[in-house]
Amino acid sequence: MNTVLEKIRDVAQEIKDKIMHLNPPSLNIPVRALSNVEYNPKKGYFELKQSRKKRTLTAATSRSFAQSLRMLELSNTLIKNDDIATKREAYYTAYNWEDAGFKNQPESDNVMDDIEAMLGVNREQMGFVPEEKGGDVAGDLVVVDRDPETKQEIKIDCKKMGSGAYSIPSSVEHLGFETNAKAIIAIETAGMFQRLVKHKFWKKSESILVSMGGVPTRACRRFIRRLSDAKNLPVYVFTDGDFYGYMNIYRTLKVGSGNAAHINEFFCVPNARFIGVTPDDIVDYKLPTHPLKEVDIKRGKDALKNDPFVKYHKEWQEAIKKQIKLGKRAEQQAFAKYDLNYVINNYLPDKLNNPKKWLP
Amino acid sequence: MEKESRLSDFEEKLESPARDKKEKDKLVKTLSAEELSKRQREISIAEFFEKNRHLLGFDNKRKALLTAVKEAVDNSLDACEEARILPEILVEIIQMDDERFKVAIEDNGPGIVKKQIPKIFGKLLYGSKFHSMKQSRGQQGIGISAVALYSQLTTGRSIRILSRTSPDAPPNYLEIHIDTTKNKPIISKNEVVEWDKERGTRIEFDLEGNYYRGAQSVDEYLKQTAIINPHATIIYSSPKAEQTIYARATDKLPEESKEIKPHPYGIELGAMIRMLRTTKSRTVHSFLTSEFSRVSARVASEVLEKAGVSPTLNPKEISRRDAEQMFKALQKTKIMAPPMNCLSPIKAEELEKGIRKEVNAEYYDVVSRPASVYRGNPFVIEAGIAYGGTLKGDDTVAVLRFANRVPLLYQAGACAFTKSIIATNWRKYGLSQPKGSLPIGPAVIVVHMASVWTPYTSEAKEAIASYEEIIKEVKLALQELGRNLKRYISKKKKVEAEVKKRSYISKFIPHIANAVSKILEEGEEDEKQLEEKLKIVLEHKRGKIEKVEFDEKANKEYDEAFALKSRSGLVEDYLKDEDEDKKQEKETDNKEDNQK
């Protein structure tokens, strides 16, 4: 029997027992916040601390209590029927729940994250799949997948995508990999990815290129992790030179997030290294910049103060402090100032050959 | 002392020299005392009345009718209570002409001894109540004789009195005419008649007046009288020939009030000197202990020592200077407050009954303050409030004022009660209140003062004078009402929130039960059971809800006949009515001018 099903059954049974003994039932949910995670450098990801919120059935919680149970029930049905629902579909399903329905999707996403954390599994296992696509891949990689109907093996060669790319599916657990590449390069923007694909940078650098398109989706993170683990490949992350690139993209990919710490174990990429634009690069390359906004500075200061990952790595603290002092940020496409292919011919080769300029 | 000053005022007015108009024209620049003395003559009581009728409550025709009924009913109630009889009072008003009415008031009281009748009804300032320190409705001995005088002046007719003191005594019928030059009664008819009543008094008089309904009408006065005198039955036939019976709500007579001696703090020097002259005591020491309340032998000795007056001195031989020293010493010595058994408050329970009869609210509260003293006069403040229910919330609260069980209908703005209500911060207690105004909210506030001597602002007994002690007591009573009201309002809010929460919870109970059952793959039976248990769990956890909802039929005392027709903005009504009164006055003046 599916362990997730067992877990859902256990939760329901416990609630029933409580009620039958005339005790108010409660749900025990880990606190999902940066304050409830710690950075474990040995394991390489954000680990959940002990803080849990006990959602006892009261007037104030009765709505979200009912919603949580409805969501559990939906998951139960999905697994039994071997079906999936996107977050959006789950939100629409709740229209049937009348009073217990959701006002908007963030509300439903939040309940979903709560029960995911409560059960300690990722939502894909519960039958919920993300809406967004997982990211694009190009390079020296053959993905081994199966036909959804016939279950026959299908091999997809990411070298033969032409000017296009292979799209990471929402669920990647069943994929197999064949590759001779030496590294994975994860890229923040689709534009930069296209430039690198166009000029077959993967061939020159013997690497696999992955486009994250902003903050990497879970599927994308899991894909990189599984590929890195399976073929023992280092991961290099190329982002803009701003706090969004450092924290929201790079840090999330590498060690996970506070919000979904319960799944970080499976979704982190501990051997990722930062080869994006650093404050030093901004100065050294005399890159065109944009001034940091008030919110940017606040984000930086917040990271220095509250982010366990930053607090652990002195290099990152210095970089962030330097950037705040600089008061500027630069995008990865800024190298076009020198030449459209400056990034291919100069920046990336230089950076990859000079580990001292990486950030941990 | 209050009564002294009032009396002297009055006497002064009666005796003050009046100049003849015709003689005035002939006036030369200097006049000898002899010449002046020729012009000095006794002022006629009728002339005095004409000039001062506003003081007595006969400012205009509308008010005259009310005052006349009020004086007679107050007397009847006083007489019944003094004789320990449950009052049953008949009020009949017959409209004879546009502005002419015949009024009859009949009671089941002790009756009046024949010899006394002429003086009581035919002589102003004759009465039993003026000289006693005792709680009663009447106090000056002006009321009913002023009614007789007004009746006589406006219609020329005498007042008719029928009275019987016991089943064995003959029913005496008298017609009394007032000699307005001498302030003396003239008996114009005197006979024994048939009367089926065993005991009681019936008076009849004609007068010029105006009948209106509304805030300051006879109807309203009788209604409020019934509220504040739940032991009385009043049967009323209006000028429109409609009969209303206000049946008594209790058979308990108010406790008999005792007469007390004056308290040293309330006496004035002149009054004390007069008492010294007339006392039967042989020494000043015994004078002090026997003529005043709360003066013990020890206190008397202390006072005399302070004053440097020998205790054995004969009070009649004391010098003015010594008397003054004694007076000053009295004021400086700490003396116990006067005894309070002279008071007969309504008592909280009866007051609430009265309010319940009148207002169908969801919340009632009454407060009886402990007795207090102003200028040596004991008094008790009682106050009540009715809140919510059928009362409207967007107007100023209605205020009902009473003194010694008499409704006060006029001059709300000048009254110490109204001032106290305005001076209380009702916003603190959950009502809104514009600055310097009565609070706004669905409430009726009742204030009653029981006292041996009520300090009215005028002889017409319309408003209570603003003594600091009185305002303080009223405010304390109102604050207590306010605090309790606040508690009720917040409890109500809490319960309403709780009810809302519960309905909120119960909305989600089925979802929880259904989801759990589906996951556990159980049947409908199990689901229902789970739902029931879940309800119990939540009930158990939240406890029982206290009921605060308004039930229109819960108030068994409520009597629609009593309900105020316009319960809101009574004060505004007063003001409006007073304006109307002024208008009427002007019209009358104009008519008179035209006649001239």
Structural description of this entry:
The complex is a heterodimer of chains A (360) and B (596). In chain A, helix 1 runs antiparallel to helix 2 (62-80), helix 2 crosses helix 4 (105-119) and helix 3 packs across helix 4 (105-119). Chain A has helices at residues 3-20, 62-80, 87-93, 105-119, 190-198, 201-205, 218-231, 243-255, 264-267, 279-284, 294-306, 308-312, 314-326, 342-352; strands at 26-30, 37-40, 45-48, 52-56, 85-86, 128-129, 136-139, 142-146, 153-157, 166-167, 176-178, 183-187, 207-211, 235-238, 272-274, 290-291, 328-329. A six-stranded mixed sheet of chain A has the order 10-7-13-12-14-15, sandwiched between helices. Chain A contains 14 helices and 17 strands. Chain B has 596 residues and is an alpha+beta fold. The longest helix of chain B is centred in the C-terminal third of the chain and has 52 residues, at 468-519. Residues 1-28, 564-582 and 591-596 of chain B have low confidence and may be disordered. The A-B interface holds A 8-9, 12-13, 15-16, 19-20, 22-25, 57-59, 62-63, 65-67, 69-70, 72-73, 76-77, 97, 99-100 and B 501-502, 504-505, 507-509, 511-512, 514-516, 518-520, 530, 533-534, 536-538, 540-542.
Total domains of chain A, how many?
2
Low-pLDDT stretches of chain A: none
User: How many DSSP-defined strands of chain B?
Assistant: 14
CATH architecture name of the largest domain in chain A: 3-Layer(aba) Sandwich
* Total helical segments of chain A: 14
